[in-house]
Amino acid sequence: MSILIDETTRVLVQGITGKSGSLQTKSLLDFGTKVVAGVTPGKAGQEVYGVPVFDFVADARTAAGDVDAAISFVPPLGARSAAIEAMDCGVKFLVLTMEGIPKKDVLDILAYAAPRGVRVLGPGTAGMIAPGKCKLGAQPARMFTPGHVGVVSKSGALSYEIGKTLTDAGIGQSAVVALGGGPIWGVTQMDAVELFNSDEETRVIVLLGEIGGGTEIAAAEYIASYVKKPVVSLIVGKSAPEGKSLGHAGAIIRGSKGTAQSKIEALAGAGVKIASSPAEVVRLVKECL
Amino acid sequence: MKLYEFQGKALFRRFGIATPDGVLHRKGDVLTGDRPCVLKAQTLSGGRGKAGAVVLCETEADRGAALEKILSMTLKGEPVNAALEEERVEIEKEFYISIAFDGEAGVPLIIASASGGTDIEEVADKHPEKILKLPFDSLIGPLDYHLSRVVKFLSTKRTKELTGLLKKLYIAYRDLNAALVEINPLAETPNGFVALDAKVELDDDAESLHSELFDALRKERSEITGRTVIAQRDTITYVPLDGDIGLISDGAGTGMLTLDMIRDHGGYAADFCEMGGLTNPEIMYSALERVSASEKPLRSLLVVLIGGFNRMDEMAEGIVKFVSERAFTKIPLVVRLCGTMEEEGKKIMRDAGLSVYDDLDDAVGAAVVGGGL
């Protein structure tokens, strides 16, 4: 098994009939992901690329059987209800792709998930891929190949970029996970490192970080205490000016806080190998494999 | 949306939280009458106290001079256009109280300290034990035991009043869909607790749930700054920089990576322009429009696309439309395009006589030497 998903994972698509939902369902099916059902209230009886659509998650479960994971394309104001509906039906892994969900709703979803042992990836995430096994996100399949490197990134596009760079260099991945741009995360960098650390297929962990916030520092503390596997890190935004927010909610340097340098020092202090470019990620990963 | 202090206080009063009586003054206002008061610059950035933009006044002369001085200040690049005059309050103790969220833990928190005031950030750095951070369940809200812990930590005799205030602050946080409600300082006075400051940040993602309030607050801000403040529903992040290489990306992470790679190649970016991971030909078109309208001459314009949710055929459509309509020949255009619907996107580019790069490093190199298509 890869982390979180594998070739047996049975997937439900919430918001399957929308523009993003249907296009991404096709891309999941093309990859070979087991999409067993879709849900859009009021659209029961339709099909999306052969996937049956139901009004409610409970109906989908009755007709299609067990569901291990749900990927949601439900619009922001409906996201909370949809996520809790999936959890009420026993789904243990949720991927929330939408950006712009009210923060209180995101906190509610996470509060509901925690005591139920549900993992939430996102919100605002491009999802994840376990090459050769399962794709539960927007990752372009051809940029990834099976192997033993676990990659975690906040940014979706950066996760594809590094996946592509590794694949072009002949290095495969056990899984590539995008967490979302924040400012609230279900699965965090630290959680992903923890999962990769206990995953038998992962031999090297690549942690892609960025300026702003302190999540890389928390990950560094965890790595220093618990991680025996080699970790390679690339922190982007080194040349960003102070005080300007670069796209992600957290990607802003405030005074001495959140600089690339402070993160690099914390990670290097935890024994992490620091790369300064994608090409160097490849070189350092090769040394570790 | 960050609010001015006077806006935050007006909202606090709506939820039953006491604030000093106050009047808002604009540029050109002249003060008459003699009374002790506090004058406070109204800006969205913090650090007003340390910048001398909060003044205690004893006499009429004091007031007039202080108001004139405050209204001529610029704080962290923000001109001061209004000042709040408030009655002086007899302060026994000052506290810090806020409700915010911890994004990584995914929980809301009450944050409290008995060391309230302008040095709270220093306290947080040097004496973290003097600050209580108490998470609570987002679905349930803070329970009696949370409130009791906060009250005990702050050690006050007015336990009932403080508990009541905390409840009101939580209801404000919840009902306003706030990302942050902060009172610093919260004054304990002989007449109970008074919010001497108010820092409120509303959640832009919840605007549709509070559209009238957002409109009213924006109108107020427009009146103060003299500039129309419009809703920021733009998915494009555009930050001007000092260099001469125009940059557009379809993700914040790759945008930042490309920014660093441009520097590694010896170049400087003219901007950071990020379209988000779910875009369309119109957004691509307007990003090109915005970046190419840079006041400085551009050496090249680098477009870095790696599509997941984004479709490369749609991105190519936006680029081709822009190039054909704008006779866009003067600035060398360098496009790296790959990912979802890549073949279709490349075909659209080829049919229009445009070529694309596959490798990011090659594309950055070409943009830095001013090469391109």
Explain how this protein is built.
The complex is a heterodimer of chains A (289) and B (373). Chain A has 289 residues and is an alpha/beta fold. Chain A has 2 domains: 10-121, Rossmann fold; 139-288, Rossmann fold (3-Layer(aba) Sandwich), CATH 3.40.50.261. Chain A has helices at residues 19-31, 57-64, 79-88, 103-113, 156-168, 189-197, 215-226, 260-269, 278-288; strands spanning 10-14, 34-39, 47-48, 51-54, 69-72, 93-96, 119-121, 127-130, 134-137, 146-153, 173-178, 204-210, 231-236, 273-275. In chain A, helix 4 (103-113) links the parallel strand 6 (93-96) and strand 7 (119-121). In chain A, helix 7 (215-226) packs parallel to helix 8. The mean pLDDT of chain A is 94. Chain B has 3 domains: 21-87, 2-Layer Sandwich (Dna Ligase, domain 1); 93-225, D-amino Acid Aminotransferase, Chain A, domain 1 (2-Layer Sandwich); 237-368, 3-Layer(aba) Sandwich (Rossmann fold), CATH 3.40.50.261. Helix content of chain B is 35%, strand content 25%. Chain B has helices at residues 5-14, 60-71, 120-126, 144-154, 159-175, 211-225, 252-264, 281-292, 312-326, 342-351, 360-368, and strands at residues 22-26, 37-41, 54-57, 74-75, 78-79, 82-87, 93-102, 107-113, 131-135, 178-189, 192-195, 199-202, 237-240, 245-249, 271-274, 300-307, 333-339. In chain B, strands 7, 8, 9, 10, 11 and 12 form a 6-stranded antiparallel beta sheet that branches. Chain B has a 4-stranded antiparallel beta sheet with strand order 1-6-2-3, with helices on one face. In chain B, strand 7 and strand 8 (107-113) form a beta hairpin. The radius of gyration of chain B is 26 Å and the shape is elongated. At the A-B interface, helix 1, helix 4 and helix 5 of A face helix 7 of B.
